[in-house]
Specification:
about 150 residues, alpha+beta, Glutaredoxin, 7-stranded mixed beta sheet, two-stranded antiparallel sheet, 9 strands, globular
């Protein structure tokens, strides 16, 4: 799916860390950031999670919820959160349905080998469930700050 700003965010129902559950309908009413990342406890993903976590209070102060999403299990997310004292919700998309709906479950090539994997991408979604910003093929450095700047414009 080729989503663009102004489109309705695809619905989802995901398990989260700490045994929770999250749906698009439950998040409506307030803006949120949904960032997709490849895997818990890898260097880039850890840095991205820590960057968003470091800005968690600033996001909360403007009423924006931040959710990280990967294919990892809720139990893996619990360990990842505890290890790095992360201050955000991590959602699990083990069947990759949400990633496919958002167009971020893509073919990747590593050392000449092709496989399917999660593209590092971020979606800023307003309280009505409309996509207001999209970042694809994210470079981690400075990304959380760029998303915060955009979120302040909502």
């Amino acid at each position: 799916m080729d989503l663009k700003p102004g489109d309705n965010a695809p619905a989802f129902k995901l398990a989260t860390d700490s045994g929770g559950e999250m749906t698009l309908s439950a998040l409506k009413g307030g803006p949120f950031v949904l960032y997709f990342y490849p895997r818990d406890n890898t260097p880039g993903c850890t840095k991205e999670a820590m960057d968003f976590s470091a800005l968690a209070k600033k996001f909360r102060d403007i009423g924006v919820t931040v959710i990280g999403l990967s294919k990892d299990s809720p139990e893996s997310h619990d360990r990842f959160k505890a290890k790095h004292a992360l201050k955000l919700t991590l959602a699990s998309d083990q069947q990759t349905k949400c990633a496919q709906d958002y167009g971020v479950w893509v073919e990747k090539t590593l050392y000449g080998k092709k496989s399917m994997g999660m593209e590092r991408a971020t979606f800023l979604i307003d309280g009505a469930g409309k996509i207001r910003g999209i970042w694809r093929k994210v470079k981690v450095d400075g990304h959380a700050e760029a998303v915060l700047t955009a979120a302040k414009q909502l």
